[in-house]
Write a structure and sequence with these properties.
By secondary structure, the protein is of the alpha/beta class. It has 9 helices and 10 strands.
């Protein structure tokens, strides 16, 4: 399939394929994520969704296929280059500095947006502007009251909120979230779902998520993968009732019996 730019599509993959030696982990995947939507990428164990996610965020280079972001071919660009264009990934394991306060983590992320310089020698006026932006981000993600807390001392759900704040600091056009509720209690899951709804605000999100109730409640569209291929696409109700999806999740193959696995 040939990728075609469309103003309503933020991210598009066409014929995306990744082979590791003789094993094809992602096989001819086509994916379109509409601008301003929350799009879920799900699948049972061994589905290939994590490899697909790594291809989209340039952790891996595709064996074949194309990736378009905002209508431009980014297939051969690196992670730093796509981040500079506004396509930013938030990892499953929180990427924060545990020895710094919540505020310091976010202010560093704001300063990093300038490029290679962290601006430690800049004027007080410039640094104050960074600090104000950091405070606004903490307010947005609900961490304003925890600004002076060491990041290491935050509960798990709040660490994910801090990670999202540092992601927002680079002003992304699109955010890719890797299992944002993994390992969380019910209360933490509800907190992070509420956070994702708040921070979307017209942004485009692609989420790999194991918790199907989260996918159902959050996602405007869902792509289901199994054995490296796309099984079904559509809203949650459509894909949940698709015969191939039901077979993939509930079939006799032991490798596909656990919903949301990798």
């Amino acid at each position: 399939m040939t990728a075609v730019s469309h103003p309503d599509i933020a991210l598009e993959a066409a014929g995306l394929t990744k082979a590791f030696g003789g094993f094809v982990a992602v096989d001819q995947v086509d994916l379109k994520v509409r601008r301003g939507s929350i799009h879920g990428l799900i699948g049972p164990n061994g589905a290939g969704k994590t490899t697909c996610f790594n291809l989209l965020t340039k952790v891996h280079t595709p064996t074949r296929g194309r990736i378009l972001f905002d209508g431009e071919d980014i297939t051969r660009l690196g992670t730093a280059e796509i981040a500079g264009r506004g396509l930013v990934r938030s990892f499953q394991i929180s990427a924060i500095f545990p020895g710094l306060t919540v505020f310091e983590n976010v202010r560093l992320a704001v300063q990093r947006r300038r490029g290679r310089s962290y601006d430690f020698w800049r004027s007080e006026r410039v640094l104050n502007a960074f600090a104000e932006q950091a405070r606004q981000l903490l307010e947005e993600v609900g961490l304003a009251q925890a600004a002076d807390v060491l990041a290491a001392h935050l509960p798990y759900g709040s660490k994910r909120a801090l990670e999202i704040a540092t992601t927002l600091a680079v002003e992304p056009h699109m955010i890719l979230l890797d299992e944002p509720t993994a390992g969380m209690t019910h209360d933490d899951v509800a907190e992070v779902v509420s956070l994702i709804r708040r921070v979307q605000r017209g942004r485009t999100l692609l989420i790999v998520e194991h918790n199907l109730s989260v996918v159902e409640g959050l996602c405007d569209a869902v792509t289901v993968m199994a054995r490296g291929r796309v099984l079904a696409e559509g809203d949650y109700a459509t894909v949940a009732n698709h015969p191939l999806v039901i077979e993939a999740y509930l079939g006799s193959d032991a490798g596909y019996g656990q919903a949301g696995g990798r």
